[in-house]
Amino acid sequence: MKQVVLHKANTRGAANHGWLNSFHSFSFAGYYNPERIHFGALRVLNDDTVSGGMGFGKHPHDNMEIISIPLEGDLEHQDSMGNTTVIKNGDIQVMSAGTGIQHSEYNKNKNEIVKFLQIWVFPNKKNVTPRYDQITLNQNDRHNKLQQILSPNANDEGVWIHQDAWFHLGNFENEKTFEYPLKKEGNGVYAFVLKGSFLMDGELAETRDGMGISGVSTIHFIAKSDDAEILLMEVPMQLS
Length: 240
Fold this sequence. Notes:
By secondary structure, the chain is mostly beta strands.
């Protein structure tokens, strides 16, 4: 049976720490909503803005797939695996926390903000060896179409994680139509509108709204504004 949840942008959890302004689509830290714990295997979707020169000090994670998608600025990453890197708009970063890692994330620039999405997905394998990867995407490959940025397969486009999940980004002109056929039966799609607005199976979602759809095999979309941008996250609805 088809099920739809709509999380309007202004109903998200919000935390403003001065140096960090964060919006939570799902329960996180001081924000708790029993109806928004997760969407299937999608556990966290944080929309973060970090002030110049500030950031998250070293902290631990385990048994979680952690994906960062920079939207603006330069984010410096350091971790206990020995990685020191910078990610920026057009990149995607992934960590399999597995048996345990520690990492920090800082705004590399003193005079500019950083905006990025922090996404956590429950893995389908526990206690794996920790792993880090990042790639730079060709953003032209998502003009009026969907660009795959994540999958379960190391040989596919984008990065990969320990879960039967697929992520896509797309940037569309007004009134462009497209459809998304799900990759795996029983999965659902959580769509997050980065910019503009879309009709998804007839339901309207606008900037920073999130919409979860499950119980279908294909989802139909119509862009309802120019330069409309969307992130689609297909994830299992049942946790293993």
